Amino acid sequence: MKIKNLLAIAVAFTFLASCANRSKEEKYNHDYLMYATIWYQNSPEMKALYYQGFNIAGERLKQFSKMKTAKPKAVVVDIDETMLNNSPFQAQEIIDNKGYSKEFWNEWCKLAKAEATPGAVEFSKLCDSLGITLFYISNRSVTQFDATLRNLDSLGFAYAKPEYLILKDAESSKKARRAKVTENYEIVLLIGDNLDDFSEIFENRASQWGTKTVDEFKKEFGNRYIILPNPMYGSWEKNIYTKQDTLPAQRDSARRSVLKGFSL
Questions:
Q1: How far apart are CA 135 and CA 77, in angstroms?
Q2: Is the pLDDT score of 21 beyond 60?
Q3: pLDDT of 164-219, one tens digit each?
Q4: What percentage of the chain's residues is helix, strand, coil (to nearest 5)?
Q5: Rg of the chain (C-alpha set)
Q6: Are 128 and 98 in contact (CB under 8 A)?
Q7: Which residue positions does the secretion signal occupy (predicted)?
Q8: For residue 233, what are the contacts with CB-CB under 8 A and spacing of at least 6?
Q9: Quick check: 50 and 119 in contact, CB under 8 A?
């Protein structure tokens, strides 16, 4: 009996130790996200960059509005971290010490409480005043269509109507959805926080994280492409991890491995 009791106690201690280590690892895993989220939510630099981006976009749009095109002009924008600020979702992940899940993301989207990014609403109204149609192309799921539309409309965004909102059905790539817009419109400007928001040419990041492609199209940034800041997440993360990096400690090690320091 005593031996059984000792074994039971040993198993219990092992289980508790395992839980403690796992909890520590999971909490540690959020450290990388914390500074980025704090910066996004609190720094005036974040606001300044958005104002700068939309100011440039506005000036370019005024120039494009004077150009003659075969089709009516259109602007394509991303939604998350472009027009809507979802940083409370990232912050709650840290506070609750939980990882990303589609279910949790869906709960946040259903609330329709995301705030507008600085300058976004004003830019949408500028599009309207110039007679240039604005399309929202997002990788939010089509199941979040009503909540997303409600969120945009509640903030006073122009073109917050069903016909201008194009969400993800099956493919993450936005190529086909942009092509659908070009059937009837000339896209003169694209705005997003992720390179994939501009063109499918940026989707292949196998070589040097895709930086060579950015160099090749550097003249388009500030011209037809307006990139906005998002240090919290993005397609760039895919280059950090391998399929084997599933545990928090492995992912932390992977992040550290891509840091570029210097030698004395």
A1: 6
A2: no
A3: 999 999 899 999 999 999 999 999 999 999 999 999 999 998 888 999 999 999 99
A4: 55, 15, 30
A5: 22
A6: no
A7: 1-20
A8: 90
A9: yes
